[in-house]
């Protein structure tokens, strides 16, 4: 598979990138090099290799899924969190209006 200048222009259009002819030529060579490298990876024999999600074996630390309704041992968590807010109202963070 190879990429031509029309494909480069189409990709640039879809990505909403303005691209001149002089900028498209080096990208064509670079993308064709990347595709060639990916095709080389496809030629590697991977029979008997287990699929992996990470390079190193990872074990997740599990915890009990407990619903607390925002309460901790010392009372209402909402009030503690909102005490650090620059502005709060009606139990929520107050933020400046951004849309007029």
Descriptive account of the structure:
The chain has 100 residues and is mainly alpha-helical. It is 38% helix and 8% strand. The protein contains 3 helices and 4 strands. It has helices at residues 5-14, 21-42, 77-82, and strands at 71-72, 75-76, 88-89, 92-93. A two-stranded antiparallel sheet has the order 1-2. It has a two-stranded antiparallel ribbon with strand order 3-4. The protein is flat, with a radius of gyration of 27 Å. It starts with a helix and ends in a 7-residue tail after the last strand. 1% of the residues are buried.
Structure characteristics:
100 residues, mainly alpha, two-stranded antiparallel sheet, 3 helices, 4 strands
Helix content: 25-40%
Poorly predicted residue ranges = none
Look at the structure and give the mean pLDDT: 86
Q: How many DSSP helices?
A: 3
Order of helices and strands: HHEEHEE
Total number of strands: 4
Strand order of the largest sheet: 1-2
SSE topology:
Layout lengths: L4 H10 L6 H22 L28 E2 L2 E2 H6 L5 E2 L2 E2 L7
Antiparallel strand pairs: 1-2, 3-4
């Amino acid at each position: 598979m190879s990429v031509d200048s029309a494909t480069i222009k189409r990709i640039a259009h879809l990505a909403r990138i303005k691209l001149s002819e002089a900028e498209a030529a080096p990208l064509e060579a670079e993308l064709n090099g990347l595709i060639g490298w990916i095709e080389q990876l496809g030629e590697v024999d991977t029979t008997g290799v287990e699929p992996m999600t990470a390079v190193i074996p990872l074990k997740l630390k599990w915890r009990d899924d407990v619903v607390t309704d925002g309460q901790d041992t010392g009372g209402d968590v909402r009030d503690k969190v909102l005490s650090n807010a620059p502005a709060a109202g009606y139990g929520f963070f107050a933020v400046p209006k951004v849309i007029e």
